[in-house]
Structure formats: structure tokens, C-alpha cells
Amino acid sequence: MTKQIILLGSTGSIGIQTLQVAKAHNIKVVALSAHSNEQLLNSQAHEFGVKPEHTCLSSENPDKLCTLAAIKNCTVVNAIVGSAGLKPTLSAINAGNTVALANKETLVAGGEIVIKAAKDNNVSIIPIDSEHSAIMQCLAASNNEIHKIILTASGGAFLGYTKEQLKSVTKEQALHHPNWSMGAKITVDSATMMNKGLELIEAMHLFNVSHEQIEIVIHPQSIIHSAVEFTDGSIIAQMSNPDMRLPIQYALTYPKRLPCPIKRLSLTEIGQLTFMKPDDEVFPLLNLTREAAQFGGNAPCILNAANEAAVALFLNGKIAFHEISEIIEKTYNKTNKTKEISLEIIEQTEKEVMNCLSYLP
Ligand code: NDP
Ligand code: MG
Fold it and tell me: How far apart are CA 115 and CA 134, in angstroms?
């Protein structure tokens, strides 16, 4: 079980909940980072007794994220949003620190590099993302070869909408997730279904499976957080009420299970669980993700960078919701693809994606 953590992105949705978990289980907090919310960062540092030199405001000093991530003998909780989390993740791994990873963009942009570094340094990456935590828990129950992963998705804010209806949805509607309260970017990602695309690539890297071995299933109640089917046809699923404190706690107390203050699940209260196929016509980003996953190399990085840029434009009121997927598709098709991958290629690819998008407002 984790004794001390470095928490990157402490002022966000996952960051704040991680501090609640740390407090409940007397886990020492050694370092904290925020991007620009200095006030909350300082009050968290004060509350958890973190030294000022172990705090970082990454908008002013991005390099310090890597310095903090390399403090020895800690678990690094990466709760940063976006591919800005990649270098700190690598820094943590190279220092021999276990990584509790919420920052899925790290694995989408640079999964191959990260998994190789983790192997070389004999470091574990423990997922915080609820689906991947669920898969890890299913595998802890039966450590057999995976036949198939069933990656569940709530369907986001616009489940059941038509293409036509998506043209007139507002930012407020997109930011209202039916089951989870999360940061703005991931909430929009859920509404476009890009979040499930990112999670598909995250799962491929974490569990060493192909995209064909992952079935995406819409499950609007968000009770089954994902499942694994084994060779014999048996499916093991993990269930709970939707509350991120559970996967965060599991990542920090693994392999132990300790009491957790979330509302316990009553199956009779829920009554029924439903499942359906995703609508690939209305939400085309899932198929585009499979295409990028199949290509490999820098293709997922292109997709991720285009998505980060398009979501930021949407959140700033510059483009409409339905334009997010159009812009991603256009940018994906226009950017140079290579089967190779390295940190330099990732940086170059992200620059190229920004150039592709420079015609936009
Ligand atoms: P938030 O937007 O709520 O928080 C993001 C955190 O990262 C904040 O502390 C923010 O600082 C900091 N940050 C923002 N931009 C940068 C940057 N460029 N460099 C370094 N730090 C930055 O996001 P969430 O907590 O919702 O999500 C964090 C990650 O976890 C994402 O990758 C998301 O996909 C993943 N995740 C989140 C879930 C959730 O329930 N929220 C569930 C599963 C996965 P500041 O406050 O100063 O802006
Ligand atoms: Mg998730």
C-alpha cells in the first residue's frame, strides 16, 4: 500500500478527491502541483503540510513537474489534464516511482514509450480511470489470458441524440454529464464519445490487447465499470455506484481493499442494468480512434492533440459542438503519419497539428 504521494494536478476534480482519499487513509502528501489556481494550491499545501519548495504552479514553471515527479520512494498520482502529463509520467517512471495514472492522454500520446520505460525500470502503472481500474480488478480475480475486454460507456450527455439534434446543443448541455461530476475537458470528451476512444487506446497499452479485443458497450447507468471475458466464455465485471473515490483509493491501497465512504450499491434499488451498441453514425470519433489505433505510431497522438485543441475552442465559445468531431477528422487526415514514435516525434506531431488548426478562430 502507498505510504506517500506526489500529486500532480491537485486542484482538479481527481486531484481534490485524491486528497480526500489520502486524508482518510493517512497517506502522506509530499508534493502538489496546479496549473494556475495558486490560491487553492497554497491552501492544500498548508492543510497537508507540504513544503513550499515541493509545490509547483506549472503555468509558470512546467519543468518543475518533472523534478517533483522524481522525488524518490513516492507514488506519483498524475491527475493533470492533457498530454502535458506525459513528461512528468516518464520522469516518475525513470525515478523508479509507481504511477497512479488518471491522465489517460499520457498513454494515448506516448503509450509505447511509457509502457517500455515502465518495463525497463520495473515500475507499475496503476490506472485510476474507472474502467481500467475495473479491468485491473477483474484480472486480479482471474489472472488468465484476456479473450476480450468489455469497455463500458455511459454514452455521455447526448446519448440517443440524432446528428441533426447535435447541431444545436449548448456548452451548458455538454458540460452536464448524467452520472459523473468531472473536469470540463473530460466531460466534453464524454459527450463526443472521444473519451471512450481515448480509453480504448489506454486499455490497449495497459493490458497489452489489440483494439479488436475491446468491445465498447453503452451502459447508461454506469454501474458496471467494465468487464473481462476469458477463454472459457466467463465474464467477470466490477460494479459499484459511480464515484471516483473508489478507483482512486484502489490505486493507492492496492492490493488491499479498505473501507471507502461512497454509497454502497444496492442491486434491488437499481432494478435493472441496460446495454446497447454505440451509434457510430452520430459519434464518428470511435471509428476514427480504431483507425488510429490500428495504424499506431504517431496516429493516436494526432487524434489526441486535435481533440485537445478542438475541445479548448469549444469551451472558449469559438466553435459549435458538432464541429469538434469535424475538426478532429480533418486534422487527422491532413497531418503526416509515421509508424515510428519517440518524444521528439510526439513534440513535432503536436506542433504540426497546431499548424493544421491555425486557420481556425
Ligand atoms: P480538471 O480539469 O478538473 O483538473 C486538471 C488539473 O490539471 C488541475 O489541477 C489543473 O490545474 C491541472 N492542469 C491543467 N492544465 C495543465 C497543464 N497544461 N499542465 C499541468 N497541469 C495542468 O481535470 P480532471 O481532474 O477531471 O481530469 C484529470 C485527468 O484525469 C484527465 O486526464 C482526465 O481525463 C482523467 N480522468 C478524470 C476523471 C474524473 O472523474 N474527473 C475520471 C477518469 C479520468 P488548475 O486547476 O490550476 O487549472
Ligand atoms: Mg473513464
Answer: 19
